[in-house]
Design brief:
The protein has about 375 residues and is of the alpha/beta class. Helices cover about 35% and strands about 15% of the residues. The protein contains 15 helices and 10 strands. α8 packs across α10. The longest helix has 19 residues. It starts with 11 loop residues before the first helix and ends with a strand.
Length: about 375
């Protein structure tokens, strides 16, 4: 596929253990000398590009909300402290339309963008995202080159992976009494669990889950969806709940809809539900069955006049330490092997993060890997 690194066949056994701590107990301190070694490379890279004409800021388009707070505290503020380059952050809901428009009229006012994998690949194919040289990225704390430190399949030609996240569905203990939903099929079962459902206004996840609920085995979902008959089957299943659906677009909406009782279940990004559970004491329960595991990517808008600064930001933001700082603030984990062991406890609540991460073994019993192609 143009614009992407070849993605190897998935090994569910390997994926299920990718969040395990590889070389030390979670409560042991990080080897500061190793951490410093990795950042020596990074600081050298950043300082080398510093000049008196450095812009005061670059613009980052990101997802906002609890994820945005995690990135701001764990990445943006430290980056500005080191380089002097400010980060102007604006929220968006994904997609390529705004990026495409800026490139077409040659008026670039976004520099760096958080992307879903499919958009990173599509945007690269269209030429609206800049190719990124992986050799510019810092090594892991132990000196492992970046290309070997990132998990296979998390880097594309124009996008660098940052975190694993998952689409799940959740419910509130306050609105679901008696029997509790535990499967994707339960999400579509209006007879046993009457009430409205929240769903994101996009095709992905909804079509796949409709097929799973209709009895398609996980390993056959995308092959089925790749046929006209499979698409018809998915839409037919969706039609069984269409009158009960409340559509959402921004990631902050599902927790609010659940808290308000507007819906009794909603699809959501797992990190949004985690933050509502841990920081707001909401009685939400995540159903991990059928969770769709995906990789977030970070890319650069083609033609930005602030390319040097954007590359510096990505080098910093995708370092093992920076990614682990995101993972200690929201339940998304680094896609760098060396960063996984740095995610220990939540910086505010102090809870162990591993049980809340999508690829923790306990949450990986029935997982669907998102196929960006």
């Amino acid at each position: 596929m143009a614009g992407s690194v070849k993605r190897p066949a998935r090994d569910p056994t390997k994926a299920a253990i990718m969040y395990e701590i590889p070389s030390r107990q979670k409560d042991e301190p990080v080897n500061n000398s190793l951490k410093a070694a990795g950042f020596t490379f990074l600081i050298t890279l950043l300082i080398a590009g510093c000049g008196t004409d450095r812009p005061r800021s670059i613009t980052l388009a990101s997802w906002g909300g609890s994820y945005g707070h995690a990135v701001n505290e764990g990445v943006n503020i430290p980056f500005t402290d080191i380089t002097g380059t400010g980060i102007d952050v604006l929220d968006y809901n994904g997609g390529l339309a705004q990026i495409r428009a800026q490139v077409q009229i040659r008026n670039i006012h976004w520099d760096v963008v958080d992307l879903e994998m499919a958009d990173a690949i599509r945007g690269c194919d269209e030429g609206i995202l800049e190719p990124i040289d992986v050799s510019l990225l810092p090594p892991g704390p132990d000196g492992t080159p970046a290309i070997d430190d990132f998990v296979d399949g998390t880097i594309t030609k124009c996008g660098i992976g940052n975190v694993y996240y998952s689409t799940v569905y959740a419910y509130s203990e306050e609105t679901v009494s008696g029997m509790k939903p535990t499967t994707i099929a339960d999400f579509f079962d209006l007879e046993t669990f009457p009430g409205r459902r929240g769903m994101r206004r996009v095709p992905q996840v909804n079509l796949e889950w409709a097929l799973i609920a209709d009895g398609v085995p996980f390993h056959q979902v995308y092959a089925t969806l790749d046929t006209p008959e499979g698409k018809d089957r998915a839409f037919k299943k969706l039609e069984t709940i269409k009158d009960a659906v409340v559509w959402w677009e921004a990631g902050a909406q599902p927790p609010q809809m659940l808290a308000d009782g507007e819906v009794i279940m909603s699809t959501s990004f797992n990190g949004r539900i985690f933050n509502a559970q841990i920081l707001e004491n909401q009685p939400f329960v995540i159903v991990w069955d059928g969770q769709m595991l995906d990789v977030g990517q970070i890319g650069i808008v083609a033609g930005t006049p602030r390319l040097k600064e954007a590359l510096e930001y990505i080098a910093y933001a995708t370092s093992a330490e920076a990614l682990s700082q995101i993972g200690r603030r929201i339940s998304y984990s680094p896609v760098r092997e060396s960063g996984m062991s740095l995610v220990t406890t939540h910086v505010v609540a102090g809870v162990d993060m591993e049980p809340h991460l999508p690829a923790s073994p306990a949450n990986m019993q029935r997982v669907l890997y998102y196929d960006a192609s």
